[in-house]
Amino acid sequence: MARVFVTGGSGFLGSLLLAQLLADGHAVTNLDLLPSAIAHPNLDSVVGDIRDRPRLDALMRGAGHDVVFHCAALLAHGSLSPKELWSANVEGTRILARAVASAGIPSLVYISSNCLWGRGFDRPVREDDPPEPCEIYGASKCEGEKILAEHAADFTTTIIRSPTIMDEGRLGLLGILFEFIAEGRRVWVVGDGSNRYQFIYARDLIAAMLLAWQQGKGGTFGIGSDDVGTMRDSYAYVIDRAGSASRVASLPRLPTTVAMTVAHRLKLSPLGPYHARMIGSDFVFDTGRIKAELGWRPTLTNREMLFRAYRYFAANRDEIAARRGVSAHRQAADMGVIRLLKWVS
């Protein structure tokens, strides 16, 4: 049994990670702004902020933690101010890293993001491609990577750059897509829908996190599914498996991205600058390094994991609509002006 410290363990990915760690017999401390839905004798779940250094010291010093899984992050959705997001994601990571070093914890695994880039690529993205974030969330993740690099002499850091994480229960912006499918409305792609945008199955990501810690492998790794099909094909697969009357339809790229940008500036849409730039673009990580160095392999394709997430939504739609006080990925995002598109779909 190891002693494991998790930040953000009450969120979508964090909850699945907690369940896996507990099933493996480890003793886990979870620190999150929200309470955990998991109760277990080997889980100490604390409601608190990673920016609270005295609380971190009290939880870490002398506790003998073997690893920290840093999953906590605020997203650029809803009414959250840029100042608060930056403080939580950047200063929070800075304070956490100092506390980990002070406590002598030997390993930290950090979940970074494909939002480090705000443009598409015509080839798989490698770990040595310089980040080019276009909005604050991606910039905050980039800054977090830099902060952890400053602690190379204090503990081993593994950075896993993750695309959109999928599994049963994943909602957020996907909740909007799933509502369209559940109601048999047209599902929209921008352009012809031939772009390939990679996802990662949550349990495959957790497997990589555990491998990195157990093997003591530091460094930076891109992760994602294999056999990434087009967005049009992925949507069509879910529609077919769901038995929905929906069909995939196209929106013209330039007018759509202009409209998305204006709606965001007017605070009428949950879709930000990253989505406007990437909605019709290709983005796939080169996963050669993580496969070679960790022996990791993905188990699900984009369309398979997207259908699993939809199936959960369809089976739990009423309960999901009633949720309050849960993380952003555990509730459907507010449609805003997208509701107008729904009415004509």
Automatic annotation (TrEMBL):
Membrane-crossing residue ranges in chain numbering: none
Any one Pfam family match given in the protein's UniProt record, by short name: Epimerase
Protein name as it appears in the record: NAD-dependent epimerase
Residues of the NAD-dependent epimerase/dehydratase domain: 4-224
Organism lineage string: Bacteria, Pseudomonadati, Pseudomonadota, Alphaproteobacteria, Hyphomicrobiales
Tree of life domain: Bacteria
